[in-house]
Amino acid sequence: MITLPKWNGQAMTAGARVTIVTRTKNRPIFLARALEDIFGQTFQDFELVIVNDGGDPAAVDRLTSRRPDGERERIITLHHPESVGMEAASNAGIKAGSGEFLVIHDDDDFWAPTFLEQTVAYLDDPAHASESGVMVRTEIVIEEVDGEEIRPVRREIFWADLRQITLADMLKINRAVPISFLYRRSLHDAVGYFDESLPVVGDWEFHLRVLSHSRVGFLDGEPLAFWSQRPESQGHDGNSIFAQATDHTQYDALVRDGHLRDEVAKGGLGSLLYLTRVLAEQEELIRAQQRRLDESAAKLDHVLERLDALNHTIITRTSVGEFLKKPVKLARKLSGRA
User: Fold this and answer.
1) What is the pLDDT of residues 207-223, one digit of tens each?
2) Rounded (10°) CA dihedral 26, 30, 36, 37
3) Does residue 216 contact residue 131 with C-beta atoms inside 8 Å?
4) Local structure of 314: helix, strand or coil
5) Which residues of 190-227 are buried (b: 16+ CB within 10 A; e: fewer)?
6) pTM score, two decimals?
């Protein structure tokens, strides 16, 4: 159940071009940072929908009430008495807004100040009219939480080799995260909303449907989006990618299986039977090659062991050992004569 949208006592600004959806649950220090990040954008023609998915409503309302009047007028707050999950929370936020463009800004992630300015300008360019959205260069920020302080530990570029967004790449593995993707609202009319049956990998499954429908642009260069990760954190401060790693593997397989069954229902098994046979033969060749490598490595280990044993015997148990001692004895004799 969802409570009625709360406009913080102010009239909502009509006609905002961008709807930003922020999902949160009992993470006030992250939400506070997200609010600073969002309202610090150089592009300000947006509305913000905060979806409090089963968390303490008082903490969220306290943070939004501290924002200036002009900002509070652009905030919609949805309080879910109980959590409905990430994808259902996304859908609720999307439907509560009206912007031409949409982006999911989770409470713990953040942007460069020009993220909205550059992505909106990209999609406004007539040359990109056929593209349904745009993704940006993204940086992973490893963080740790110490009380009320969020400390960065290290940074690394997410998919540093990425130069464009393609369905072929996305079929292998998710190459994007929600914080990096601004897209046209009309996309939902074409491909539907986020799959609420998925507790994880819902963004990847949505990206697959998006790229099956149309092209998505890519803004290379300096990172404009920052994906916060906390491998050591648990509970509310944790990330699902770590806390639910087993679920990610399970639902990755289920998503692939579901789309495969849809394809079979449309076109039959013929081509898939052929392709899976070719793949099986390739897998067997790889396994055979690995067996040969393992056997060669075992033989090499055996040879090295024998060489070590032989070397030990030569030095300690044969006349060669005595021969190596003779220079020392000779040196001693010469020293004595002197």
Assistant:
1) 999 999 999 999 999 99
2) -120
3) yes
4) helix
5) eeebbbbebebbbbbbbbbbbbeeebbbbbeeebbbbb
6) 0.77
